Amino acid sequence: MHSFWKSALAVSVFLFLAACGSDAKNHPAAAPPPPVVSVIEVQAEDVPIYNEYAAQTYSRDMVEVRGRVDGYIEKRLFQAGSDVAAGQVLFVLDLRPYQADVAKAKGEVAQSEAGREFARKQVALAQAEADLAQAEANLLKAKQDVDRLRPLVKEEAAAQQDLDNAIASLQANEANVKARKAAVQQATLSTRAQIDTSTAQVDSNKAALRMAELNLEYATIRAPVGGRIGDSLIQVGGMVTKTSPQPLTVIVPLDPIWVRFKVSEAEYLNFQARTQKDKNLARTSPFELVLANGTVHPFKGHFENTMNQVDSKTGTLELQATFPNPQHNLLPGQFGRLRIASNERKNVILVPQRAVQEMQGLQSVITVGADNKAVARSIVTGERVGERWIIQQGLKPGDRVVIEGLQKARPGSVVNPQPYQPGPQGH
Fold first, then answer.
1. What pLDDT does 247 receive?
2. What is the CATH number of the domain that holds 230?
3. pLDDT in tens, 110-149
4. Residue 136 falls inside a structural domain
5. In a 10 Å sphere around its CB, with 0-12 CB exposed, 13-18 middle and 19+ buried, how is residue 300 labelled?
């Protein structure tokens, strides 16, 4: 009985397998669909060729804020790390000593001006001039007396004694006039000296007043330039001295931001040769600044300066450029890459770097023919332009190059080509 059931089970299994085999022959398995790959159709285009150089930002006009007068800080009117404008008040010192100096200097100016006015209206000179006028009048009368008596004496109508007295009076008046003239000259010189002295005193006191006013202005410390301000190194209540080696704070102008980079001696000579042909090339050629995270600064820069000697150790020369930085998003000390258009290639074919495969020093791409079959093409690449290679040999306009799905596109196999749709980052 046991042997019977074993035989029946074996027959059943045989019949089942036979039925499955018959069904497979009647319904063969369907072929898998061709794999989907992303392709681009390459075309000839004109592209600029860029050179890239390691670069670092810096602030050329960084300013240390220092005190010009001594005093205690009463107010600090800024936040560290904020942007300040030129002329903005940063610190206010104790103003009272300097206000007192200004008031004192004003009083001294007024006093000296009054002294000058008194010298101009000198009484001694006026008195000397009046005495001279009186002496000249007496001299005139004495002359008239002598002239009147002389004919009378000749005619014995007047006594000789009267004539002698008149002549003596005339001589006395002449001497008196000379003395009065000397007195007037002396008074004039004295008055002029007093006026000059008082005028000099007025000028000196006005200069002292101006100095006192300047010191009062300096007690209110303002930003000499606009830019990003650093931390305060002396706090409210601290003593500021004009001879202190330590600045109060530092202001870094950020717009424009300066960038320094180095080029080889050969590149500098080539640059010189191009600028000799086009004098405006250095100023008109735009520069791009690629930041550390790979983003490009939104504003173009321009060449500014060349340093005055080549570094003998590295064989490089430092060049400087400026970039607009109105949003102050670039800070001194940042590293990046400076990109400069050095040439232009016309009618060249470019493919993304991700499409190029390299094996044992040979480069190739996968193309898709008219029959949708994948074909391996050997290529020769040239300069890199952004994320693409210039193809010098191996491709022609209209070729479809596989960008995505390279692992699926085996040479000779049929594929399903779809237009390449770059992502948000160009991938």
1. 92
2. 2.40.50.100
3. 988 888 877 766 656 667 677 778 877 887 888 887 788 7
4. yes
5. middle
Q: Does 53 reside within a domain?
A: yes
Residue 207 belongs to some domain of the structure: yes
Cα angle, residue 239 at apex, residues 235 and 243 outer, rounded to 5°: 120
Structural domain including 244 reads 63-95+222-252
261 close to 58: Cβ distance less than 8 angstroms: no
What is the C-alpha to C-alpha distance for residues 175 and 190, in angstroms, rounded to an integer? 22
pTM (predicted TM-score): 0.59
Phi and psi (nearest 5°) for 182? -65, -35
Q: Read off the DSSP letter of residue 411.
A: T
Within a domain: residue 133?
A: yes
**197, 218, 239 — which closes off a domain?**
218
How deeply is 364 buried, as exposed, middle or buried, from its count of CB atoms within 10 A (0-12, 13-18, 19+)?
middle
Alpha helices (H) in 155-299, listed in sequence order: 160-218, 265-277, 281-284
Instruction: Give per-residue pLDDT as tens, 281-327.
Output: 556 678 889 999 989 999 999 888 888 888 888 889 999 999 999 99
pLDDT the model gives residue 204? 92
The answer to whether residues 258 and 399 belong to one domain is: no
Rounded to whole angstroms, the Cα distance separating 362 from 344 reads 26
At 297, which CATH number? 2.40.30.170
- Would you give the distance in Å from CA 387 to the centre of its chain? 33
